[in-house]
Each structure stands twice: as structure tokens, then as C-alpha cells.
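Table 4 source record.
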Amino acid sequence: MEKDKVLRTIEEVARNKQAELKLSENQLTSLPAEIVELKNLTELDLYRNQLTSLPAEIGKLTNLTILDLSRNQLESLPA
């Protein structure tokens, strides 16, 4: 998925106050900073991308109960 489409998807989820965001199999190498604005998010699916790290701000998603990071190339996680 192109970066513009990812940003539009995030904006739509924020506008509709959706609880789930599925970005699996999109060859993402990083997460946009806008993702931390999704305060209602309870499920974030990042399965099978190319992520090597996560932004520290991901910890601000305090309602998140499911985070699928499988099949990425994560080298470290934020403290």
C-alpha cells in the first residue's frame, strides 16, 4: 500500500473512531507518526510487512489489546 493510502486509511479510522486497523501485507518499512492519534484503537494488525522498528509513541495507544507484528524484521522494540 502506498504511503498516501496508508495515511488516508489512518485518517478514516480516526474519523470513524474505529477500534481496528488492518495494515497487513503492505510492505511497510515504517509506521507514520499519525498512528498515535488513534486513541480508540484496540487492534492493530501489521502482519507480514517489512518493519524493522516501532516508534516509541506506539506506547500512547493505551487501549490497544491486540498487536500483530508477526512476519516482520523487527530488530528491537521501544522500551
